[in-house]
Each structure stands twice: as structure tokens, then as C-alpha cells.
Amino acid sequence: MKTGAPIDLVSLQISELSLAYETQGVSPSDVIKEVYLRIENCNQQELWTYVVPEAEALEEAEKLDQKNAQDLPLYGIPFSVKDNIHVEGIPTTASCPGYAHYPECTATVVQKLLDAGAILIGKNTMDQFATGLVGVRSPHHPVNPFNNEYIPGGSSSGSAVAVTKGLVSFSLGSDTGGSGRIPAALNNIVGLKPTPGLISTAGMVYANRSFDCVPIFALTCSDAKRVFDLAIGPDNSDPFMIPQPSKQQEAKINDGFVIGIPDKANLTFFGDEQSEACFNAAIERIKAMGGIIREVDFTPFKRAGKMIFDGPFLAERYASVGEFIEANPAEADQVVASIIDKAKTYSAVDLVNEYYVLKGIEHEVRDTFTNMDAMMVPTAGTIYKIADVKADPVALNATMGYYTYYANILRLSALAVPAAIRPDGLPFGVCFVGKSQRDQWLIELGSIWQSQTELPLGAPF
After folding, report:
1. Is residue 66 pLDDT above 90, yes or no?
2. Is 342 among the residues known to form the active site?
3. CA distances for 211 relative to 37, 155, 189, angstroms
């Protein structure tokens, strides 16, 4: 392909786009023009809270046109970020227009990717203040690209839809209780949720700062790994960073690896037979890959998960945005406001006692992981229509988090990958969960998994 030729069929998958730059004469300016054409033609403008003016993005692309692609690992790769992550010169709203403010500097992780040659396209809609897993808790919101009657998943809804619709190559979200995994599953893409503390969270609006993390949405595990390898690393401005493992790059899947699945007493699909059939097929696929399936007691994971939205750890959300919500009640989504307001019903002693309980659960979970290499769960046990969620927002949101809530509060690693397209045309995904700093092993497992599922990437255009 020559410069200036139509590139509407070029995939924005990072590996393919990089190859096009290297061998086909495509330039970053060509790609940016195509991206903005796609945004203009996309019928989901609601997935953006801010789009960088095309002229500004083209200016950045033209700077790259003069540079050597070999010197920049993300040369000319378009990306977007969730609108609770700061970018200097662009308002941060957390999908609450009244909260809009201009940050003084760019988040560390975003700056790393810009320095690697990536081009920022815009900021994405989210469940307001990152409180929700449904993707519809904001003044305007995207819909599921596979069926617009269904939720896109949250809270990183816009970030996931931007990737699955081919508008960007990858995106950044935030994940406290599943927001980097649920939207991946509902949009047929990869959601890499790192071990908390491996990627800096300096420069964002927090939900639970002590265990928030920045997930990566991409079409493939290899693309997610490419971003992950650049995003990790120390940051003195983030006191919650953890030591980087010296062997983070080493990962090998040996025959006879053990995959835990939730025990029968705790494995539920909330009456969704299609999801159940898809998960059963996923179990058989793992066996065919050489894995050994072992049932594990899912009870401690459930107990930890309930602490996210039903206990004194809500104090962290209130510390982040509670005062704003109280001072500006008309600005906030009422479901979000009611959840965060619950923090005031707990005392400092309640929080300390909950922390002690959590440490006990962590001990149980460590023992569980001594008997398996990773756990596989349905990323979401089912999927709901938007109308149903709006009629029963709290209970159905909790259902969406059944298999995700626990991961960050327990300091675990996780990778959501596409598993099937259900008979009704909606995506189904599974999530591989590992102990802390098991990220690279999960990525390798996910890469093998993707190579064997042969699913189409993303959503139909």
C-alpha cells in the first residue's frame, strides 16, 4: 500500500499497523485521517467526552512523519483514555460535566505512551466517577455494538467501545471492581487488568486509590502486552507502586498447567443458559490446550468482592469525590451518589475491622493459588438490556460484578479474553485470574487461547 492510497481496510491492531508503517508506505498522517473519518461515520458519538481536534492530532502525526519508526515502539498508534485519567490541556470530567476541571499535568502512564510515539485521539465516556459496571450511569452513554438494546459494560464503557469499533488501536481505562474486564467481555476484546501497583495511577480521579489500577483494552493479547511492557515501571509520584518483579518478562505455559474454576455451589449464570453453555465450552477448550481443571472454593473471593460496594471501604470513594457530590447534588447521577453516600454510615473502627477481615481472606486466597496456576471464571455471568438495568440499577450491577469485584482488593492479576459469540449474537468472555504479579504468564496463556478460538476481532463495522 502506498502513501495516500485508501487505507479504510487497514486494521488498527497494533501489530498490523506497525507492519503497515514499516513495509507498506503508510504514514501516521494517513492513519489519523482514517481514524477521524471513522469517528465521523460512527453512530456512537456518545462514547466520547472529548475528541482532540483533528488538526492537533494531525500535527502530532506530522511530527512523527519526520522520525524513525524503529525508535518509537508505539509509532503512530492511535489511542484513547477514560475520562478519569488526566491529560494536560483537556478537561477531566469523570462523565460529570459539573466536575470538569483542567489538570496541571498528564498522568504518568499516558505520558509514557505519548513518549513512545502513540497519538491521543480523545477521552471516553464512563460510568460516572467510575462507580458501576453497566456503562449507562452518565448523562449520555454508548450502547453495545452487537445489539444496541444491551449495556456496553462499565465503568470503562467508552474506552472499550472505541477499541471494538476500530476507532483506536488501544485504550486505557480504570479498574476497581471489574471496569477493565466487564467492558472487554461485552465488546469482544481483550482487557488486561494488571496487578495493582505495577502501572502508575498518578494523575487520575480515584475510586479506591489504594487498589485502583489502569487496565489496557486491545484487540489481542499481544497488543495489550506491547502497551503493558511500556506502561509498567517505577513512578516516584505514586506511593502505591510496588517493586517491579525482576523476571516479569519470563512466562512459559507448561503442559499440565492447572486451572481452577469456581465450585458448583458458587458457579452461577443467573439463569442465562447461553452463557453457561459458553463457559462449559471454554472448560473443554482449556483441557484441549493441555490444562487440568480443578474446582476451587469460590467463597473467599465472593466475600472479598462484597467489600467493594457494601462496606467501609466505600470511604475511599467518598474521600475522592464525596465532598463534590454533597456540594453539587444536582450534578451527580443519583445511583452513584447514593452508593458513595453510604460511606458515611461506617466508622473508622468499622474500616479497621474490615481491613482485618480482608487480611484473613488474603491468606485463604494465597493458599488456594498454591494448588493452581490460575483461575478461570466467566468474566460476566450474563448480560442485560439497558432498560432492565435502568429499572433495577443496583441489583443487576452487583450481578455483573460477581466474578470480578474481588481481584483488585486481593491484589490479583487478571486478563479478560473473548471466548465465544453466543447464539443470540452477543459476546461471551472468560477471565484468567492469577496471583499478584502473574501478569506475563496470564498474557502468554491468553495469547495461546486467542490463537485457538479463531474469533473475529472486535465488533462488526
Report:
1. no
2. no
3. 38, 16, 24
Tens digits of per-residue pLDDT, 385-431?
999 999 999 999 999 999 999 999 999 999 999 999 999 999 999 99
- Residue 238 grid coordinates: 505514586
What are the pLDDT digits (tens) for 280-307?
999 999 999 999 999 999 999 999 999 9
Q: Give CA angle at 202 (199, 206), nearest 5°.
A: 100
Distance CA 351, CA 15 (A): 46
- What totals of helices (H) and strands (E) does the chain contain, helices first? 17, 11
Tell me which of 18, 27, 155, 157 is the catalytic residue: 155
Task: Single out the catalytic residue among 82, 165, 225, 435.
Answer: 82
Residue pair 105/63 in contact (Cβ under 8 Å)? The answer is no
For each of the domains in the chain, give its residue range(s) and CATH number, in order of start.
14-231 (3.90.1300.10), 258-452 (3.90.1300.10)
Task: List the alpha helices (DSSP H) in 265-378.
Answer: 273-288, 299-306, 315-317, 323-327, 334-341, 348-369
- Residues 127-136, mean pLDDT to the nearest whole number: 96
Catalytic residue among 29, 156, 179, 413: 179
78: closest CA among 112, 105, 113?
113
Is residue 254 exposed (0-12), middle (13-18) or buried (19+ Cβ within 10 Å)? Answer: exposed
Residue 3 has pLDDT above 50, yes or no: no
Angle at which helix 273-288 crosses helix 439-453, to 10 degrees, equals 100
Is 359 a known active-site residue? Answer: no
Q: How far apart are CA 401 and CA 45, in angstroms?
A: 27
